[in-house]
Amino acid sequence: MTEKIDKYKVQAALVRSFFDAFSHGVIESQVEDRNEKTTPQSVKKLMLEHYEHIAPAFFDIMFFPLAAMNYKYEEIAALAREAQQRGDDMMALVRTACGDEAYYNAMVEEYKRNFSMLLAGKYLSNADHLEGYVRKAKEETEASVDSDRAIELTVRVVMFAYVRGLRQTGESARFDRSAHLGQVHPLRGATLFRLMLDAMNILLLDEAVDFADAEAADLASLFLKVCQTQHNFTVMTNEMDRTYSELMKE
């Protein structure tokens, strides 16, 4: 039987994964020196240079995943059409996708938390994210998302946001099928895999994983450590393949 994940946890993982992947895409496309890629100076400089691009990218990429947590797939297109007919702006559209005010407010807080860190030249660690993400209020009813769907949505956010970041500077999204994990990855596969490891860690576990005792060259063992089960690992790699195919058509 499919497991469930708290909806606030899923939403927070999606928002953090967007900012992590988008910013790394921008940095990968502009900073050649590996030692300079994630220095506070580089991160702050590039996020300030792309300040105006972040919100549109967020709304484009995040509308569907946020909506898919709250509505059936066949309802999402109707929601988008109705919003367009009303003339809703991007913020109003995302408010609708979040389902209710509590989840929308939580999403805004996560957006601010991640964005503020990047503008200060820093990244939230997995441990800090898991400790500080917005949780449900005591009076709220428990709500959850099927783990399979949560994994699929998170994979899509990571891959679409990373490619959007790469394309932000006019670089084409190049892919290489030489990887054995999921059989797909962008040219800079190491970055994508690191992003995906972090995303699965904060989505599926309640504490940051220590990879010190894992074989760094064995990607499968690293992913099994964060995915916890072979089933979750398979869901993730299958969605990586589907998302890759979708990106190749753009």
Q: How many DSSP E strands? A: 4
Helix content: 55-70%
Number of helices: 11
Q: Enumerate the strands of the largest sheet in spatial order, edge to edge or round the barrel.
A: 1-2
Q: How would you classify the quaternary structure?
A: single chain
Give the C-alpha Rg.
17 Å
Characterize the main sheet. Answer: 2 strands, antiparallel
Report the principal-axis shape.
globular
**Strand-pairing-aware structural class:** mainly alpha
Task: Describe the protein.
- The structure is a single chain.
- The protein has helices at residues 7-30, 40-49, 51-68, 73-86, 90-98, 101-119, 126-132, 147-167, 189-204, 219-227, 230-248; strands at residues 4-6, 144-146, 175-176, 185-186.
- By secondary structure, the protein is mostly helical.
- The strands form two sheets. Strands 1-2 form a two-stranded antiparallel sheet. A two-stranded antiparallel ribbon has the order 3-4.
- Strand 3 (175-176) and strand 4 form a beta hairpin.
- It is globular and about 45 Å long.
- The model is unreliable at 171-187 (pLDDT under 50).
